Amino acid sequence: MDGGQSLTTAFIALGSNLGPRSAVFDRAIELLESEPRLRVVARSSWYETEPFGQVQPWYLNGVVRVETGLSPLVLLSWLHAVERACGRIRNGVRWGPRVLDLDLITYGKTRIHTPTIVLPHPGWRRPFVRVPLAEVGGVPVAS
To answer: Are 106 and 129 in contact (CB under 8 A)?
Structure first.
């Protein structure tokens, strides 16, 4: 990244319960960093968690802290591209099984609430996000 570029700290939650979950996370991080305006600066441990919603395999969850020059919407679009590259097919099933789920949890101190993006992400309060978020220096944002 260009040293003169203004960077924002963002936190991204990772989740997977299909396929080789840890390998999918490694690939996702590699793909995230292939974007020149994004750098992963910390990653949490991976945590195995019980799913909610329908009966399905347990999830592997974690959080990465990134520094980025991308806007929130461009970053969200990049996260969706990485999901697709890792085999994610969005089929409209909420809280269903998936190869990879990337959620933009926070983007600096930005607050947004539109049909496309909500920041901070409403799921940040869930333990499978809160615990790894704290591990990488994320501070929960009061909403």
So the answer is: no
